[in-house]
Amino acid sequence: MMLNKLYKRCLCSSSPFPSPQPWLFVGLGNPGDKYKGTRHNVGFEMIDAYAESLGIPMDTVHCKAIYGKGFVGDIPVFLAKPQTYMNLIGESTGPLAAYYKLPLNRVVVFHDDMDLPCGVLRLNDKGGHGRHNGLKSVIYHFHRNTEFPRLRIGVLGGLLVKWIPKHFCSKKST
């Protein structure tokens, strides 16, 4: 259901361009087994769920990220899980957006949000970093531009949705 809302909000707009412009979806997280299942990696888990639902293999490394590409209808989508650790995640995200010459309003960043109850999702079209070090890095590598959408994924107690395992809301990340 949430993926359907994301599809409708991001991918179902009419375009004056002859061919559909691509979208880049970036999940924030930390690489390695040590961080699997922690709340910081909910962005990675969201990308994995989105890739699986679209049948997009995440089997390439590009711009320091595990990467996949595919289509939603005739719209190209790129999915990325940067492998640079949270505080440096912009080192991957900035070059990915630049490589594909994407305007920042075509880059959606999925990240954990400690200010939202677990399982609550908020799609914002722009905003600041909200004390999130990964977003600080992304903003820095977007030349301090905050005009990019982000999907905030609540990880603090409360309501759970089906695709977020309970351990995201109870396991502390280091």
From TrEMBL:
Keywords: Hydrolase. The keyword Chaperone does not apply. SUPFAM superfamilies: Peptidyl-tRNA hydrolase-like (SSF53178). It comes from the Eukaryota. Pfam families: Pept_tRNA_hydro. PROSITE patterns: PEPT_TRNA_HYDROL_1, PEPT_TRNA_HYDROL_2. GO terms for molecular function: peptidyl-tRNA hydrolase activity. Belongs to the PTH family. This is Peptidyl-tRNA hydrolase.
